[in-house]
Specification:
This protein is of the alpha/beta class and about 160 residues long. It has two domains: about 70 residues, Orthogonal Bundle (Helix Hairpins), CATH 1.10.287.180; about 80 residues, Roll (Chitinase A, domain 3), CATH 3.10.50. It contains three helices and seven strands; from the N terminus they run E-H-H-E-E-E-E-H-E-E. The strands form two sheets. Strands 5-4-3-7-6 form a five-stranded mixed beta sheet. Helix 1 packs antiparallel against helix 2. Pfam families: GreA_GreB, GreA_GreB_N. Belongs to the GreA/GreB family. GreB subfamily. Keywords: DNA-binding, Elongation factor, Protein biosynthesis, Transcription, Transcription regulation. This is Transcription elongation factor GreB. One of its GO terms (biological process) is DNA-templated transcription elongation.
Length: about 160
């Protein structure tokens, strides 16, 4: 399955800041360090030179990825019409059959973060939630089998109102 190109405004800004940092700060510093290490002596046994060249390749790879990705990403801002239903950017409180609750935020695949309970719009849980309302049930296939979840609450952070 292809990954979606949706992202929150703050997620896009985070990726853009990373790109600018790598290109304007990190890469020039590493390039300078590699130049200085190259001037020292035998490059084949020069750890600073070898590590620096490897780090430059990593930076260049990430810069290429971010440049291409930022071009295709579509920022999705909050809209009042979303209220009451689950769409991209929603926070959702789910309750399982045992009465345990957990809150998730639906975000783009470039910004999902399990530590923050941010799940990708492309995940099975998020896909099954889209368009649902409070008190709806969803069935989700999990590694442990089918799971029945109830939607207790839906809300949106109002970032992106301009």
């Amino acid at each position: 399955m292809a990954k979606s190109n949706y992202i929150t405004r703050s997620g896009w800004q985070t990726l853009d800041q990373e790109l600018k940092f790598l290109w304007k700060d990190e890469r020039p510093k590493v390039t300078q360090a590699v130049s200085e290490a190259a001037a020292l002596d035998d490059r084949s046994e020069n750890a600073e030179y070898i590590y620096g060249k490897r780090r430059l390749r990593e930076i260049d790879r990430r810069v290429r990825f971010l440049s291409k990705r930022l071009e295709v990403l579509q920022i999705v801002d909050y809209h009042p019409k979303q209220e009451g239903k689950v769409f991209f950017r929603a926070w959702v409180e789910l309750e399982n059959e045992q009465g345990e609750t957990k809150q998730y935020r639906i975000v783009g695949c470039d910004e999902f973060d399990p530590a923050k309970n941010w799940i990708s719009i492309d995940s099975p849980v998020a896909r099954s939630l889209i368009g649902k309302e409070v008190d709806d049930e969803i069935k989700v296939d999990t590694p442990l089998g089918k799971s029945l979840l109830y939607i207790n609450k839906i809300w949106y952070e109002k970032e992106g109102l301009y």
